[in-house]
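Task: encode each sequence below as structure tokens.

Item 1
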Amino acid sequence: MTYNSQEMQQILDVAFQRQQQGEFTQEQIIEIASELGVSEEALKAAEKVWLMKQFEVKKQQMSNYQKRQEFRSHLISFIVINAFLILLNLFTSPDYFWAIFPLLGWGIGLFFHWLNVAKK
């Protein structure tokens, strides 16, 4: 029976998962790669690419976390200030509900902020 490279990779992945649930040292990875005919240079280049991808993923996760925190802060400000404006409006001029204008204007901005955070 013969296997293509993708099938071989899948079989090896399953074997690695069954054999060892722990971690591999860099020396072990180099030894395994050499047994598979992968040069040390190719392995180091692949490791650099993998590390860059890991860095980008972490950077994106931090960026998303920061955006959610900024939105949460924006939402809290919106609720507190607009609650104050509504109460002020009700006590000073209950006949005319002027607080709707900052509520709607800021609400539109908050909505677009939420859209920006939610699409990521």
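Item 2
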Amino acid sequence: MMQFYFLSVITNLLIGFMLVFEKQAEEIKYLENKTVRLVIGIVACVTGIVKIFVVSSVPVFGDFIPFVAGIAGGFTILLEYYIKKKDVVIKEDSFISKVFIANKKIVGIVCLAAGGLHFLFPKVLFL
């Protein structure tokens, strides 16, 4: 469905921008709002999960990287929101801390790449 394709591309690019260019994203009026960031994270996770079940020209594999990037990026944004809201401390040696907190710029770069490549090559296998 074209709607989920569009939503996947937009959320991947937006989350990638928010994670890679964190200082510039916080200067933008709408992206500094914590509720907007929460909604974007939820939409990215839901879109990634729904893309697993929406069959396109090549089932599952045609959207594999974009839905994984969407789920990972959305989870990173949701985790940031939760940590800031509840003042939770996550152990530095835990898997979640190593992947989603310490390497959030890498997750953002993957989201940007997945969104950009999925926009340019929508029907290519493994993109």
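Check on item 2: The chain has a mean pLDDT of 82. The radius of gyration is 14 Å.
End of task.
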